[in-house]
Amino acid sequence: MSILLVLMCSVFDVTHGLLFGTYGSSTCDSSGLWYDYIVVGSGAAGSVVTHRLTSNENITVLLLEAGGLPLFHSDVPSLAVLQHLSRQNWGYLFFEGLIDNLMPWPRGKVLGGSSVINSMLYVRGNSIDYDRWANAGNPGWSYVDVLPYFKRSEDASVVHRDLAYHGSGGLLTVTDVPYRTGSAQLFVEGFREMGYPYVDYNGASQMGVSFAQATLRKGRRCSAEKAFIRPAKVRSNLKICLHSHVSKILCSSDKSAYGVEYIRNRRRLKAYARREVILSAGAFHSPQILMLSGIGPKQHLSDLGIRLVENLPVGEKLYDHLSFFGLLFTVNKPMVTSLQESISPANLFKFLLNGNGPLTLTVALEAFAYYKTPAANYSENYPDVELMLSGGSLQSDNGTLFRTAFGVTSDLYNSVWKELESKYAWGVLPILFHPKSHGKVRLRSKKPLDPPLLYGNYLTDSENYDLRAFISSIREVQRVVKSPIFQRFGTKQVRPSVPGCRHTLFDSDEYWECVIRHLPITMDHQTSTCKMGPRGDPEAVVDHKLRVHGVKNLRVVDTSVFPVTLSAHTNAPAYMVGEKGADLILNDYYTTE
């Protein structure tokens, strides 16, 4: 298996250079050049902003990206986890607040950002989420306001979709996953038997069950680089500089941003912006760059000896969507797939020639059900938990790639998953959409190449809502698997032998709380570290036009601005923020022309 995988990746990467051509001209090593706009970060939002601004040939843009070109094997959906082990990942680890756990927090360090290493799932969220966003003092961000931006990006070919809610002809391809395992069919039919309607969860109603919608094009990953940067790279008014690590924003004495300092080839360089600097570096790096530039919490910056430019609560709140391993089931029929089967010669040729077969699976994350738990403290009918089918689990590759990528030790793997290697096993990942617990981002030092300090603070809310919601979601899955169709296939719940939880009674609430604390997993949906809100909001960093409070000519356009948690995965909303952010920037450009 490993030899074939290495050979496939090598062939892809040789071909890769021919398709991408070159980025990053020699002028990237020249200091003191001027542009109309400087965009920092090429993830979903930054790529959209770059594409839309350079659509006007009179606007010059410099795009700075700390990473390099995507590895070509990132195009293969089922190998998404492999990207977490590559140079395309910043490689951050989180080790606070959970028991005996070293949790990876993958973030994309590559042209296209995290859209190159993510699971490609396209989930926008609930209309109520965006109405809450607007009602928090952010006019222009209600669902009726943002829906046109979702549609603008999209070229949707999902079979069962609410047409009024989807776009066609956009640059981002959104499709059904071409291949489905039997476990996905079982999951959807089982939830339908137990009262869940089949829905387009990106349409009129989110409450129900559905197969996954994904950012795929002809069975391959459709990343921000492929959708937005690649078509724009030929424009003479765009310069892209890779391997360029932005160290600070340059601000004048009147608190106006006029450029950036960045490190490339071990040299400190400067680039200047006539109009604006746009931070799209993501929920970790946008606050890090702001704080390195003197924009952040006064005491924290003072402790590090950083001169204060503007006292703002940068990095004070970090929300994330937590889930956990351990909700596992076996069936008596072969309805799951393994990595070894996926990369067989026959399936490799299916993928290369036709863009189908199991290699198109988005890491076997194939279907969703949306559930409002009794722990939810709101009256509206929208979900606080997503139940996501994993048509396999860590045993799908016999404990090699997946175990390593998720930071699971061999001892833990052997205790929980080893016995499932010879069985037909799949899992459900309950995802907590609206956690009460939140973490924060801090600077490790004032050295720009030092990674930021990341605090998750999972499961620390005083109301104990987070754990109650998780346990309720477990009970709901247990209820659903009693349906006739699940029982027809001999569905049985696995009793994982989790070290540290063996003293508890299996299936008690105490047992599940222990499992959740020992087997957590992040969904990589970190947000809100540069929260949007009016100037009077003590938690706000940017206003509703994404302008940094108190600093001129500086905006943040990425997931860090989300003021509320969303019933969503963050990739789709990031594209939307990029679209709307580009309009806000262009509106100001044309107003001042």
From TrEMBL:
Stretch forming the signal peptide: 1-17
Binding site for FAD: V110, V246
Family annotation (PROSITE patterns): GMC_OXRED_1, GMC_OXRED_2
Active site location: H525, H569
Domain Glucose-methanol-choline oxidoreductase N-terminal: 108-131, 282-296
Keyword Signal: yes
Cofactor: FAD
Domain of life of the source: Eukaryota
Family annotation (InterPro entries): FAD/NAD-bd_sf (IPR036188), GMC_OxRdtase (IPR012132), GMC_OxRdtase_N (IPR000172), GMC_OxRtase_C (IPR007867)
A GO molecular-function annotation: flavin adenine dinucleotide binding
Keywords assigned: FAD, Flavoprotein, Signal
Residue stretches in coiled coil: none
Stated family: Belongs to the GMC oxidoreductase family.
This protein's name: Glucose-methanol-choline oxidoreductase N-terminal domain-containing protein
Organism: Pyrocoelia pectoralis
Lineage: Eukaryota, Metazoa, Ecdysozoa, Arthropoda, Hexapoda
